Each structure stands twice: as structure tokens, then as C-alpha cells.
Amino acid sequence: MSQDPRTALVVFSGGQDSTACLAWALARYSHVETIGFDYGQRHKVELDCRGRIRTKLAQAFPEWAPRLGEDHLLDLGLLGQISDTALTESRAIEMQANGLPNTFVPGRNLLFLNFAAALAYRRGASVLVGGMCETDYSGYPDCRDNTLKALQVAISLGLDSPMTIETPLMWLTKAQTWALSETLGGQALNDLIIEHTHTCYLGDRSQRHAWGYGCGHCPACELRREGYAQYQHDKGNA
Description:
With 238 residues, the protein is α/β, with parallel strands linked by helices.
């Protein structure tokens, strides 16, 4: 694969999807930095996973290590203060009258990408990479392809500088995301994802499953578990 000389900034939460995106970016771009956000999420343990994942990636894939640049963690506590969601408060996860789950944090991805773009501009990066997905997702409107295309135009105009938003998982199922990470880094990468990433909305790392750590019953865990099962099934039938 030819190496793109541009610098990419990956929105990196410490979860499965963002880790797959980080590997995807490291396989493509000459320099890759990461950005994370502390917004008062109840699964704040994901932030503790980020540094370990970066270290493990550099150790397991020495060809990627020279490309992995700085990490940036931004405090967006204000987002947690103005949100009334099951991701920022200890409350049951359920569907709302508007058809969206109460894990939806309004404006989260819009803010994330705007702050990422501001940092990217300062760091000389022209590519933003995010794990947003419209195939296996919870119905969040700020994960939709059209939302992100519109945001890319607005950011590029607002900065008066081209800024590309890459979403390599946009049209992939969770099973296909597992397959993508295997393609990028083999079983070693999937083992790293299983052991070190965090997806569970409740922040539970006390229970270890075949697909990783989590409570096993929140929507994020269910999606990850079902995707892993389908991925294993597809591998067995290949």
C-alpha cells in the first residue's frame, strides 16, 4: 500500500472502532496523531485504555511505530454538564419518545470533529479519521454519512483550508470491522482489541468475554458480541 504523505488525526476513544480506525490510518498515512475527549462519560475507563493501546500497537507493529505521533486529550466537561443522557449519568439505558436511545449525546460528534479540526489545523494535519458508522449503529444522527459530508464542507470553508473526514467503518457491519482489523494486523491486532479496548457503556471491565471486557448486556456490548460471533461464523465458513 502506498503511503499517503499527509498527516492524519484520529478521533481515538479507546474502543474497538476507534482502534480499528487508528490501525487503518497507521497503515496509510506517514504521520498519525490521536485525540480523545473527557466529557464526563460514565464509561470513563475508556480513557485509561487509550495509552495502553497506543503502546501495545507500537510494540506489536514496529512498522507503524515511527508513524504514531502525539496524543491529545481535551477536557470537554461542559458537554457532560449540558447533557441529560445515559452516557453521562447513572441511569437505565432505554429508548426515548423521539426514537433515539438515551445514550445519544446531542452534538457530541459535531463538537468532537470541530475541536479535532481546530487542533489538526494547528498541527498541520489535513485528515480527520473517525469511527462513525451508519450500518451497525444506535441510530445517532451525527454518525450519518450525510452529516459528516456536510461537516467536512463546513469545516473546510471555516478554516479556509481543505480538511478531509475519513470514516473507514461507515458502511461496515461490526463483523466486517473485526474482519478489517484482521486484514490490517492479523490475529495479533484482534487479540489486542479484545484485551485492551473498551466499548461497554457502563464502564465494566470486571467481566472478560471472548470478544473483550464489558457488562455483556448494554447496547454496545450486545453489538460487539453479536458482531464477533458473526465474524467467527464467517471465518469458519470461508
